[in-house]
Specification:
Blueprint: H1 7-14, H2 23-26, H3 37-41, E1 46-47, E2 52-53, H4 57-68, H5 78-85, H6 93-104
Antiparallel strand pairs: 1-2
Helix pairs in contact: 1-6, 5-6
Length: about 160
């Protein structure tokens, strides 16, 4: 059985964050949040120019969470929140809602306040493999030690 995504992970997927080279991936901005005072207050360093650029994916996810916890989203259902987040004038919002609900197991009528504590699960960095020498006298099979951990990845 596949574990459902969190609400924020599903939005990031819909925005293309998990696809290398996309704007949301390049900008560490999983929600494609527009650059401005809000994103600057939440760690954005610049804009591209319309969308915020965060130094890390974690800051991008944290900004998404803060935005969904702001008064403008209080009491909204998934459908209402996503109509505000990805308005139909520039998105296929109905398809967006269907995908997010499918990937999360939520319904369009679920009030987002009911699961705000489950909006985001921090990504876990994969543990790199460590080469263990077969013998101490075999330099070819010896590792210089474990590789440094790669930067955290939110790939699903």
């Amino acid at each position: 059985m596949t574990t459902p995504m969190t609400f924020l992970q599903a939005i990031a997927r819909e925005e293309g964050f998990y696809t290398t080279g996309t704007r949301s991936c390049r900008n560490n901005n999983p929600g494609d949040i527009e650059f401005g005072k809000f994103t600057q207050a939440h760690g954005a360093t610049s804009g591209d120019p319309r969308f915020a650029v965060f130094p890390t994916p974690d800051l991008g996810f944290a900004a998404m969470m803060a935005l969904f916890q702001a008064p403008g989203y209080k009491g909204l259902t998934v459908a209402q929140a996503l109509n505000r987040w990805a308005p139909p004038v520039e998105n296929q919002t109905n398809a967006y809602i269907v995908n997010v609900c499918k990937w999360t197991g939520l319904t369009a009528d679920t009030v987002i306040d009911d699961f705000l504590d489950q909006l985001y699960v921090a990504p876990v960095a994969p543990v790199p493999p460590v080469t263990i020498p077969t013998t101490l006298s075999d330099p070819a099979s010896a590792s210089s030690g474990p590789s440094p951990l790669p930067s955290q990845s939110t790939s699903l």
